[in-house]
Amino acid sequence: MRQRNIPRKIAGEEWKTHDARKCKAARRIEFSATTQITRCAGHRQTGVVATVFRFFLIALLAVALMSALLWQGRRDAMRAAENTSKGVLAIYESHINATLRRADAALLDIALIARPQLQTGNTEVSKMGDAPAQMTSRLSGFSEIVGVYLIDAEGVLRYNSDSSLAGINVADRDYFRSLRDKPEQGLVASELLYLRTTGQPTIMLARAVIGQDGGFLGAVGITLNLGYFAELLAKVDLGPRGYLAINRASDGLVLLRRPSTTIQEPSQMAFLGEQFISGKNGSVIATDPQDGIERLISYRKVEAYPWVVVAGLGSGDILSDWQNRLYGALAIVATLLFAGILLLRRILRSNHALKDATAQLARLSLAVEQNPIGVMMTDLAGAITYVNPAFIQMSDYSLGETLGQKASLLSSGLTPP
After folding, report:
1. Locate the PAS domain: which residues (predicted)?
2. May I ask the CATH class of domain 73-320?
3. Residues 222 and 187 sit within 8 Å (Cβ to Cβ)
């Protein structure tokens, strides 16, 4: 019988200890190749899924943070624009209020001069004496005012300072009808009208002349130089789509707008009429019915007078910088999404290839384990790392005795018969 490289018999407790240590080592590494390959593949696939999940979670959090910052930036841009427009309106309201106060004071004086003429019926210019000169003198130093008008209770124009034409009937004018129906209401502003005397566009400010008995005697009015107010509104640039306007408080009617538009739509601001009538100041985002452009529209009532100053800023102008940031953010998100899709495709392809390789290795391992010919594998140092069952049967060594030993164990002179 041939001798073995490792003694099979060790006396007493030394043999038992040696054999038990060998068996424990064998149990720790004794797994089939199929099981080892499958488990490694499973661990790798689990790690890949976790990596993909972390990537998309981080991307989702980044998108959420970016969205929050963009939304806050949009709110800040709109709030800054609103504050700017309100500041502009406060300045214009103060200036226009001062102009209307002077005009209203002049109208009160003119009404006192005109009352005796209307009460006595002396409404012919030739019978008025120095009353026309007195009325006209009240306009001295007023570059904003064009002319003075005296209208009797029937709506007949009795005197106008900017033309010798008299005797025409203006009873169809909205300002006259309003004063005739409600003479105690104070100063009234007309719509944008074209003077029948000169054909020039203007706005009439008028007051009723009330008799001692409270009856309506007629009206006095002054026409405004719109060029003065147009120059005033044109001093501020509110952007390519912005504008400043003066509106009538009673119905939102646009009296003057700069820059002006080619479309004539006198009731374009009627949708703000309720806010104007209530006397509130505020802002609203709305689509202008005249040109279809969405704007931030801020409005401020001229204190104690029937006018409202309005500032409109185009939403596109306000948000132009914000939109540039938005497009940049969308480009980043699209890039991340594209990169994530490419990564996911590569991972899926890699997993598919890994599954194929795992299945192939499993089949190969099964073939090796069931092979009736003994198979042994060693590392670079020559130590045995794997033997199949056929090898164990042929060599008469146990698995624990074989693994880790040198391949020289199998030399022909030392193997069992």
Report:
1. 360-417
2. alpha beta
3. no
